[in-house]
Amino acid sequence: MPEDKGNIIPVDVKDEMKDAYLNYAMSVIVGRALPDARDGLKPVQRRILFAMNEMGIRHNLPYKKSARVVGDVLGKYHPHGDMAIYDTLVRMAQPFTYRYSLVDGHGNFGSIDGDPPAAMRYTEVRMNQIAEEMLLDIEKNTVDFIPNFDESMQEPLVLPANFPQLLANGATGIAVGMATNIPPHNLSELIDATIYLIDNPQSTWKELLEYIPGPDFPTYGLINGTKGIHDYFREGRGKLILRGDARIEDLDRHRKAIIIREIPYQVNKASLVEEIARLIMDKKIADVSEVRDESDRDGIRVVLELKKNATNPSFVLNYLYRHTALQTTFGVILLALINGRPEVMGVPDVLRHFIEYRKEVVIRRSKYELKNAEERLHILEGFLRALDMIDEVIHTIRSSQNVAEAKDRLMQQFQFSDAQAQAILEMRLQRLVALEREKIQEEYRELEKRIASLKDILNHEKSLMNLIKRELLDVKRRFGDARRTRIVDEAEPLDLTDLIAEEDVVITLTRDGYVKRVLLSSYRRQGRGGRGVTGITTKEEDLVSQIAVTTTLHKILFFTSRGRVFQHPAYQLVEMQRQAKGIHLVNLLQLEEGERVINMIPLKDFGEGKYLFFVTTRGIVKKSDLLEFVSITRRGIRAINLDDGDELSTVFVTNGQEKVLIATAKGYGISFSEEEVRSMGRVSRGVKGITLRVKDRVVGASSLNNNLDLLIISSKGMGKRVKMKKFPVHHRGGKGIILMKFGQPENEVIGVQLVSGQEEILISSQNGTLIRINCNEVSVQGRATRGVTLVRLHKGDLISSFALVE
């Protein structure tokens, strides 16, 4: 480089990038993306309205081509591209985007289905009447003007804004490092709240909620819950849950339909309908036969026609809320520019800023009008004095050589001011008639009153605020309307179970750990002694070990051979056909190697005063409070400590004060009071419940009830009911008494259950055959009997499990 560096200044590139980026960021924040808290407009919106006002495209005049407006704004005020201007113009004309449209559009300005607007050369626009309120008195020095981008003309820094536009229409914008998302509100409610705030400057956000219950969207709909409203009223940030209005209606005697009449704000209706249709095609919503969009100019109407056998329309509706845009969230960020700086505010602060700005506008307007009124009064004073000596004035004017001389002589001889003398010279002769004199005097008196009123406004705060209130009430009278969006006071979070149709199901578990869920209706009733139906196709050497009858809304507790317990919702188990093998439990539960599920308990809820009663195959018993099992992790928790070689036999729910009976495979049993077993923690071992005979093991247990019978079923398909009085109560730890005798070799008890006789029994064999019979077909017998045949088993097959159907 030459030695003479001239004006070259070395700059660190890091500092230069920092400064340049900050300048860019502030340019975007102030000049493009964020609204001003005073008029609620971004620069491009403000420039569009100002240009239309300058062009005279008002609400009561003919429409003009949109291209004319766009070109004027682009050439004079906003050199950022014609589409940026036209897109803004289109949004200001869309009744489903703006709560109070500022532009009256003629032509295709897009639709709620996401259809694009026509090109700007085809559409026409003019200002809506409410937009003219934004520019009212702009010519009266109410706002400051600044040079435009090329300093060839002036544009307003802000519009006078006769109502709180920021909250009325809301705003959305993404700047650099910050964003704003303000929902629209009802104008009548806003004005009522503003007037209340004027009268009560220290009002809290809770007091303003009495006037503004929440946002009011142009697309109607519902707001589910008030917490988000309270949050953004208080802090300027909150999350709203928006829902469309969907109702279940009868199409005819046999069919129902879900009718969607309103959708959430900013949701594309066509996309919503496509989304619902896709769920129907994917069979995620099985009960819907057809979806139709019957919307027209009168409003939205989307029909979801349900199938004739659809039993739970509420399930379909809840599913739509959960999985489609029929329910959305609206994150409120009440960010706007205050004196050129971005600031997040609560609703009271926004209204306070508007009130202060409105005071400034009215004061500047009043000063402007006072100055003009005083100047006019001064001229009228000159007229009246001139009329009092009109002959002398006329003689002076006629005798003057020119206008300048006449003006000077009027000022010298009659002490008129320069302005008065000029006005007298310009006065027409018709003002000399008596009637005109009366008009001048009347105008003079009116001006005196007007000047007194303006001085009162400028000198007294109360008069100023009363004027602001009167003007706000006038805006409310002309443009206010009824609220559209309904607010649900209490937000009920959608639980997954709200989306599940409650159905009776059978949970089947095999010895090798395959589980499945089958509708109970898949198993038809048969008489006692029938062959049953195929309930599961097991792989070779696998056997059905347990079945449980429950509903899809219940939780299933899975107890394992190692004393752990897992929890799984019934509806999350895979629903399959009767003959299906099922899915292995390792896909659902985090089982350790060699660990087996040996017991299932369906539960509706975990209530106080309930206990789990554990019985092991070696006769150890334990009682634990059910509430200790409320929080079961995905990895499972310890339920009982087991001795080496011992396993859980059964677990059932008690109230802590019942009589219990333990049954063994060889047909012996013992009954004792549950109160003999104190409540223990989850990781305890328990105490002895029964002393077993050689090669015997516990196969079942049950609580006792004198009003019920004990159902006993053996592996060879025999069963009976026994009255409770046949079982004397002993102390725990004894060897027990006979429950059932066997007439067949290798027969043994597989389980016991309390029954009333009104239930049905679902019995499963090891090979997967299931039979469903009425309990009252099982006869009542004594303890030392074999029972009656319940199932005729195939050769080599044995009963593995049974369950009761209420």
Describe the structure.
The chain is of the alpha+beta class. The chain folds into 4 domains: 34-161, Topoisomerase II, domain 5 (Alpha-Beta Complex); 245-325, Gyrase A, domain 2 (2-Layer Sandwich), CATH 3.30.1360.40; 350-486, Topoisomerase, domain 3; 502-805, 6 Propeller (Neuraminidase). The chain is 29% helix and 25% strand. The chain has 17 helices and 41 strands. Strands 14-9-8-17 form a 4-stranded mixed sheet. It has a 4-stranded antiparallel sheet with strand order 10-11-13-12, covered by helices on one side. Strands 21-18-19-24 form a 4-stranded antiparallel sheet, with no helix packed on it. The model has no long low-confidence stretch (mean pLDDT 88).
Key descriptive features of the protein:
806 residues, alpha+beta, Topoisomerase II, domain 5, Gyrase A, domain 2, Topoisomerase, domain 3, 4 domains, four-stranded antiparallel beta sheet, 17 helices, 41 strands, 29% helix, 25% strand
Structure summary, number of beta strands = 41
Radius of gyration: 43 Å
Q: In the CATH classification, which architecture of the largest domain applies?
A: 6 Propeller
Low-confidence stretches: none
> What is the residue-averaged pLDDT?
88
Q: Regarding CATH, which class of the largest domain?
A: Mainly Beta
As laid out across the biggest beta sheet, the strand order is 14-9-8-17
Coiled coil: 430-464
Pfam families: DNA_gyraseA_C, DNA_topoisoIV
GO cellular component, one term: DNA topoisomerase type II (double strand cut, ATP-hydrolyzing) complex
Enzyme class: isomerase
